[in-house]
Specification:
The structure holds 2 protein chains of 2 kinds.
Chain A (H helix, E strand, L loop, with lengths): L6 E7 L3 H12 L6 E8 L3 H9 L8 E6 L5 H11 L4 E4 L5 E2 L3 H15 L3 E16 L2 E9 L7 E2 L2 H6 L8 E4 H6 L11 H12 L1 E14 L10 H4 L1 H20 L6 H31 L7 H10 L5
Parallel strand pairs in A: 1-2, 1-4, 2-3, 6-10
Antiparallel strand pairs in A: 4-9, 5-10, 6-7, 6-9, 8-10
Helix pairs in contact in A: 1-2, 9-10, 10-11
Chain B lengths: L1 H10 L4 E4 L6 E3 L6 H10 L4 H10 L1 H20 L7 H12 L3 H18 E3 L1 H12 L3 E6 L5 H10 L10 E3 H4 L7 H10 L6 E5 L2 H10 L3 E4 L18 H11 L12 H27 L4 E5 L2 H12 L6 E4 L3 H4 L9 H6 L9 H7 L8 H6 L14 H10 L1 H23 L4 E9 L2 H8 L3 H5 L1 E9 L12 E7 L5 H18 L7 E7 L2 E6 L6 H27 L2 H4 L6 H8 L3 H7 L3 E2 L10 E2 L6 H6 L2 H9 L3 H7 L2 H10 L1
Parallel strand pairs in B: 1-4, 1-6, 4-5, 6-7, 8-9, 8-10, 10-11, 11-12
Antiparallel strand pairs in B: 2-3, 13-14, 15-16
The chains are: A alpha/beta, B alpha/beta.
Chain lengths: ~325, ~650
């Protein structure tokens, strides 16, 4: 195993100086020193980005800025930087997210150690906390923090589970840059869910280790739109649309004989999860009813509703 | 003195004094003589003989009892007379029943003789009478109903300080095939030496054999009332490892064992209650060290200091060990490599009230720089005392400052982590020893180690761990508890949570204050310790209890030296302690209930009583004072007893 492997960090930004300032601090505070950062200013104002980067004079050799005069889109911006990097590992550090100062050190040391036991491991992910915040002018006010995906079992990420839903945000995921290249980088055609698509393709070929320590902070601004909005919040409809777009594409490939079974599996998996959730809901309702001793008749309507949802009530 | 005078007057007109041996001059460190067979099984469980005779050894106590019974029956059937047999005959039957080889039979015989000699000790009372007889110029004889070889018994007597000039002084039933029980051994003894019974006195503990039968031969008698022996076999529903622990614990309360009991009451508590508890925990802990091929042991301050001393003194192995100065307060500011909500709660958990400023000082954050955030949450000053009503708001503020806290934590780790990393430098599989509970200290300690956390393995081995450990356990944080692990079994956890924890922490207190933080001194990182003087009274009592614990270990160290740890592991060692917590005596309450305890990080100066005493009015009315007293008391069973009508009236009458 290579000693002290290098990590390339990619930060995409566009007119979010207030957030980029904090992201840069998150990177320069890392206790692991063998990193380089490429900031891709994807069609945003140039001056504020340069100004914020220049502030970190001690790191001027490690931080590079790429200015796109015209925005190429989120995943294309990532690919631009990833193609530029020559590091062992890479990670996407969105301009609104943050890390614990130990993030890189801990995960790089762990992946190197665990790869010796399970060579298929080519990526590592830690738990994330969700930070809810509000931006007012040039200040960010943190409203609260909550555990985000601590339900994921430690060990290896389940491909099966990933096929139902994206399990972690990019801020928490370090991956082998070589393997990313082999996979053809991120899908530039996707305006959202490019991370889910990448994680699924990654897991189809390699394993990802889960470290059950929340060292990544996934920031959400619930009331923000425009430049300061989150794609998962502001673009909720897009997420649903593109989720089905991917599921349909994978299934179509299978049905046309061009796929590898991913489409059939992923669609059945999604349907199974839906039924499971409905059954859980039903059983919870029955439990509550029995606890309250109100009789099953009171449940008629909610049960009908659930059965109707799953298509079993005619 | 009265007994001695009585004995002296009895021997005034005799020339000869004979003594029974077992349970008169020598006692066993077990509850009953037949418990030796359980001890033999425990000893053999880890030996190679198990591979060939698994079922024989597993059932050894029964087979050994059966062999003796059969040998006696065979002897009577073939020869008539008394059922007196020899050690050899017992093992001949054992060999026949079990069909094991002569070599293995000989080995077990050797083990029995060896263990018998290990558990026997000189009776202080028996020896006192023996000395009086010797000093009065009497001729001494030893008469015993026993199957052991006479030469072996002779050696036992000599090794325990009894003079045996020649083997003619010893009369053993097995050798002569006649017993005291039938009276014939007395006849033989008198005839062989041409003694007149009236000029002899016999001392023994068996009323029929030693008193009735000797008297029938006109021999004067002295009843050895200083021992109690019940050698009936009483089947117990327990694991085979539990028998020895049961027997040792029961033996402590026997009258013959009183000679070992310490003089002061606190030492006595240590000997009878915490001695067995720590003996059990440490046997388990050392078993785990061996099984896990541990190459370094770290004992965490302060609760594991005394455990470390016992480990170094009584456990023979070559695993290097070190003591780590740490506490919740000293580790919290260094531990934020990640951000879990349960660790945030830990920053201000505990019963002691503190101000916002004090809480953030613990995190090394100057909260006065964040007044805006404070005001937003409804706090006016940094001096405001945090109460349960404001916990949620404080939790929110700490969360809001996560970035600053983690950054500070990273800086502090950089500054002080060499202290921790030096401690693990010479190990690769490292055990972390403490009394335990939530696993937070281990979790925080590991976070100070940077790459040493990844490159080495760590295992927490605790006296007990509660459900809370589930928040800390991961593939990178391994721990388990002896008495309760992850809160299972629940009933043990409840006992510990209702006073057991605090009683244990009292006993394990040490001679230095809590670790508050660390500092650099002449290029070295050293701990900053809280002033210890405030706890002096408490500490002195704890030291007395510890002296009692050491005495227990001293008495039973032969088990640690000669037995595999695996065969000693049993939760039965904790029974006296669990009984103390659940059902204390009035005297135990008097000795322990007023002790104080602090459960707040970095605040040993804020302490409250283990079991408060409320007014008589509160007891009658069961009013708010009573309820408050109950809630504030750690040791619930003691609170209820201490504040019961019966206890108070009893005390009034006694006074």
């Amino acid at each position: 195993m290579k000693k002290n492997p290098s990590v390339g960090i990619v930060t995409r930004t566009k007119n979010r100086g207030v957030l980029l300032r904090r992201a840069l601090e998150s990177v320069v505070n890392q206790t692991y020193e063998n990193w380089k950062l490429i900031v891709v200013n994807d069609g945003g104002e140039k001056q504020i980005v340069d100004q914020l980067v220049e502030k970190h004079t001690d790191f001027k050799d490690k931080i590079m800025v790429v200015h796109n005069v015209v925005s190429v889109g989120m995943e294309a911006a990532s690919n631009l930087a990833l193609k530029e990097l020559d590091t062992d590992y890479a990670v996407i550090h969105d301009d609104d997210d943050t890390w614990s100062p130990s993030f890189l050190e801990r995960l790089i040391l762990l992946i190197d150690k665990e790869k010796e036991v399970i060579p298929a491991i080519e990526g590592i992910v830690c738990y994330s906390n969700r930070v809810l915040e509000t931006v007012r002018g040039n200040s960010v006010i943190i409203d609260s923090i909550e555990h985000y995906n601590h339900w994921i079992p430690a060990g290896l990420v389940s491909l099966d589970r990933m096929l139902y839903q994206n399990m972690f945000p990019p801020i928490s995921f370090i991956f082998s840059l070589d393997k990313c290249r082999e996979l053809g980088f991120f899908n530039e055609e996707l305006p959202v869910l490019g991370d889910w698509d990448f994680h699924v393709r990654f897991l189809l070929n390699y394993d990802i280790l889960v470290v059950p320590e929340p060292m990544a902070f996934y920031h959400h601004r619930l009331d923000a739109t425009g430049a300061l909005g989150n794609t998962v919040i502001a673009g909720q409809n897009d997420h649903l649309t593109y989720r089905n777009l991917l599921l349909n594409k994978w299934l179509r490939d299978d049905l046309n004989g061009k796929g590898n079974g991913l489409g059939i599996y992923a669609n059945q998996r999604a349907h199974f999860e839906f039924l499971l959730n409905s059954a859980n809901l039903l059983s919870r309702l029955l439990e509550i009813a029995s606890r309250l001793n109100r009789g099953v008749s009171k449940l008629e309507m909610p049960v009908k509703k659930v059965l109707n949802r799953v298509g079993l009530w005619k | 003195m009265e007994i001695a005078n009585n004995f002296l007057s009895k021997i005034q007109n005799v020339d000869v004094v004979s003594f029974d041996i077992f349970d008169t001059l020598l006692h066993r460190k077990l509850a009953a003589p037949i418990d030796l067979f359980e001890l033999i099984r425990s000893f053999l469980l880890s030996k190679d003989i198990m591979f060939e005779h698994h079922d024989v050894i597993t059932d050894f106590p029964n087979l050994r009892r059966l062999s003796e019974k059969t040998a006696r029956e065979n002897h009577v059937y073939l020869n008539g007379g008394d059922a007196e047999i020899t050690f050899e005959e017992i093992y001949q039957v054992f060999k026949d029943i079990t069909e094991i080889s002569q070599e293995h039979t000989d080995y077990i015989k050797k083990v029995e003789l060896y263990l018998e000699s290990l558990i026997l000790y000189r009776s202080s009372e028996g020896y006192r009478l023996y000395k009086l007889a010797i000093d009065s110029g009497k001729r001494i004889y030893y008469i015993s109903d026993m199957y052991l070889p006479v030469d072996y018994i002779r050696e036992l007597l000599i090794n325990n300080g009894y003079q045996v000039i020649d083997s003619e002084q010893i009369y053993i039933s097995g050798e002569h095939r006649i017993s005291k029980h039938s009276g014939k051994l007395f006849d033989f003894f008198l005839a062989k030496n041409s003694f007149d019974g009236r000029k002899c006195l016999h001392v023994g503990d068996n009323h029929y054999s030693d008193i009735v039968q000797a008297s029938a031969k006109n021999i004067k008698t002295h009843f050895a009332d200083w021992s109690f022996v019940d050698n009936r076999y009483k089947p117990k529903k327990c694991h085979i490892n539990d028998y020895v622990a049961h027997s040792v614990i029961s033996s402590i309360n026997l009258p013959q064992h009183q000679q070992f009991l310490p003089e002061t009451e606190y030492e006595m508590l240590g000997y009878q209650i915490w001695g067995p508890l720590l003996f059990g925990y440490m046997s388990w802990m050392v078993r785990e060290l061996q099984a896990g091929s541990i190459d370094k042991v770290l004992f965490f301050a302060r609760d594991a200091r005394f455990i470390m001393e016992l480990y170094n003194q009584y456990f023979r192995n070559n695993i290097p060990s070190d003591y780590v100065y740490l506490s919740r307060a000293s580790l919290i500011p260094l531990s934020f490599t990640d951000w879990t909500m349960h660790r945030v709660w830990k920053v201000f958990s505990g019963r002691t009230t503190r101000s916002i400023k004090e809480i953030f000082e613990l995190l090394r954050i100057d909260i006065s720089l964040f007044m805006n955030d404070l005001r937003q949450m409804g706090f006016e000053t940094i001096e405001e005392i945090i109460t349960p009503d404001s916990y949620q708001r404080l939790h929110l503020i700490i969360n809001k400052l996560y970035f600053q806290i983690m950054k500070k934590s990273s800086e502090l780790r950089k500054e002080y982590q060499s202290y921790f990393r030096n401690l693990v430098a010479d190990g690769s599989k490292i055990a972390l020893i403490d009394i335990g509970w939530g696993g937070n200290i281990q979790s925080m300690f590991l976070r100070t180690l940077a790459d040493d956390w990844v490159s080495k393995s760590y295992f927490g081995l605790y006296l007990g761990t509660f459900d809370e450990t589930k928040e800390n356990i991961s593939p990178y944080v391994n721990m388990k508890g002896w008495l309760t692990s992850n809160g299972e079994p629940e009933e043990i956890k409840k006992i510990l949570q209702n006073g057991g924890v605090e009683l244990l922490e009292f006993v394990l207190t040490t001679d230095h204050g809590s670790t508050l933080s660390y500092k650099k001194q002449k290029g070295k990182i050293i701990p900053c310790l809280e002033n210890h003087e405030t706890e002096e009274g408490y500490a002195n009592k704890a030291l007395s209890v510890q002296a009692g614990i050491r005495k227990f270990f001293e008495e039973y160290k032969f088990l640690l030296n000669d037995f595999s740890m695996d065969s000693l592991v049993s939760s039965v060692w904790a029974n006296p302690f669990l009984e103390l917590v659940n059902n204390p005596t009035e005297r135990q309450i008097e000795l322990l209930a007023s002790l104080s305890h602090s459960d707040t990080a970095g605040r040993n100066s804020s302490r409250s009583e283990l079991a408060k005493k409320v007014s008589f009015k509160a007891i009658i009315m069961k009013n708010a004072e009573y309820k408050e007293g109950y809630d504030e008391s750690y040791w619930k069973a003691a609170f209820k007893k201490r504040n019961s009508i019966r206890s108070r009236i009893g005390k009034l009458i006694n006074n």
